[in-house]
Amino acid sequence: MTPLSFLLTVFLFALAWLVLTKGGKKSKGKFPPGPRGLPLLGNLTQVGCRMHVVLREWAKQYGSIFSIQLGLEKIVVVDDYKLMKEIFNEPAFSGRPQNEVFLGMSQGNYGVINSEGSTWETQRRFTLRHLRDFGFGKNYMENLIQDEVKEILDWLKGEEGRLVNLNRKFSLAVLNALWSITSGKRYPQNDSTLTNMLDSSIRAFNSLSETGLLLFAPWARHLAPGLTGWNTLQASIGEMTSFFKKTVHEHKETFSGDHIRDFVDHYIQEIEATTDPKSSFHQEEGYKHLSATVGDLFQAGAETTSTTLVWAVLYLTSHPTIQEKMQEEIDRVVGNSRLPTLQDRASMPYTESVIFEVLRMSSLVPSGLFHRAIENKEFHGYVIPKGTWIIGNLWSVHNNPEIWGDPENFRPERFLSEDGTKAKKHEALVPFQVGKRACLGEPLARDTIFLFLASIFQKFQVGPDPENPKLDFEPMIGFILVPKPFNVVMKERH
């Protein structure tokens, strides 16, 4: 194909997409202002790889509510956390993007992340209730996490004095803990099933990170499925979906209402009790939602929680005084004869403040998960048409000097009460997003981060690579902000 014919094909595909998907969607009223873009591409070439940074600069020019166009998608950007809370609590803006990429990730609009309307409300309510009953803050869940903590501590003892990279170890440990809570099954950390699950997840995230075309111009997959990452994404999603469906099938075959083993069993129990054919829990429809929900919990929780732990190690390694102060608190509250527990957390405000500051500084998912208007709706003088995507720039909120004073500095004390006895979560700290669709796994993520972090720094002093002591805080750009690979040296404290 010649360059000219390629461009013509791109144009024709885009024109067809525009006619089919955007026709008849004009709305009356004032739309938020924003920068001019290119035909077909919109502002894609302007936002580049650091979209959250560019959006922050545009907010200074156009205000806290403005618009951009990425590919053929009109997007409203919100840059103020109070406005985010308002817009994301509005039912009219509670939808999710419905293109091929998002539908593929959610097994066809099932589960809790990408479903909408009353189906989403029902599925979320059930999932949240049973995760609370079965896991959040309970001894059973804590014991499952502690099993992974103990394994990683044993491994670190064998690596004392050597250079270690904790990225993959954290990923496998967190994934195993999450999978144990969800499906009741724990794998050895070198098990191929566990490592294959992790690798498939990483490939899926990477394929979305390599190019924005898939998210904002999914028609491009027809032209260059390899270059856009479509082939990799499809293969990775297929591998994970097969595994989730297999897990559900195995539970279905061995299910006993007298012995509920895990979250999947709770869900099957609900399916078995549902007789209303209109219910999203009814028979095969229920099993489709279950498989997708298992995938949602896996994909949303494992990589983000483990990456937060990596950021925490990076910041504490580069700030030895803060590391030492946190360890003094751990020693005072916990001692060394046992591991930290969730019950200790209320007595460890400095450790909790360190975690808050890591969440703020890392801003792991800088723009959160996208929302979609499911009806025409006015918001602060602007009319947002049905189908418009909505982004909250969480990274910008976390780096706003008007809120934090010195956002560029790693300073946990900003979250401490004046007398230092309590950790105070600032309302502008929104790493798990806000509103009706805020991350339902926040309690589990925070519990996991606390148990891993407090236990590791109870047992080990963590220092930089003596041959390469300068640490890089500039993240690798992608769907989530991940630290560049780095090594540390572990030294037992007691």
TrEMBL record:
It comes from the Eukaryota. Residues 1-23 form the signal peptide. It comes from Folsomia candida. GO terms for biological process: organic acid metabolic process; xenobiotic metabolic process. Keywords: Heme, Iron, Metal-binding, Monooxygenase, Oxidoreductase, Signal. Heme binds at C439. The keyword Heme applies. Belongs to the cytochrome P450 family. Its cofactor is heme. This is Methyl farnesoate epoxidase. InterPro entries: Cyt_P450, Cyt_P450_E_grp-I, Cyt_P450_sf, Cytochrome_P450_fam2. One of its GO terms (cellular component) is cytoplasm. GO terms for molecular function: heme binding; iron ion binding; oxidoreductase activity, acting on paired donors, with incorporation or reduction of molecular oxygen, reduced flavin or flavoprotein as one donor, and incorporation of one atom of oxygen; steroid hydroxylase activity.
